[in-house]
């Protein structure tokens, strides 16, 4: 398999995020290394898994 990468300039005009999960990564561009970790110190019976939580609208948003 041949894989060619061409690194060029990136320009992002606008990004709109309407919701975030409890464990999220949002990346624009590239990264050499990403390391994520998560731990819970809550008993499993008290964990509530529900739908995404919407973000509050920004003031003056369109």
Automatic annotation (TrEMBL):
It comes from the Bacteria. The lineage of its organism: Bacteria, Bacillati, Bacillota, Bacilli, Bacillales. InterPro entries: Spore_germination_GerPD_prd. This is Spore gernimation protein GerPD. It comes from Mesobacillus maritimus.
């Amino acid at each position: 398999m041949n894989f060619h990468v061409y690194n060029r300039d990136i320009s992002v005009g606008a990004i709109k995020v309407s919701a975030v999960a409890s464990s999220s990564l949002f990346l624009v561009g590239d990264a050499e290394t990403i390391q994520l970790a998560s731990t819970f110190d809550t008993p499993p019976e008290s964990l509530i898994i529900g739908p995404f939580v919407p973000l509050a609208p920004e003031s003056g948003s369109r």
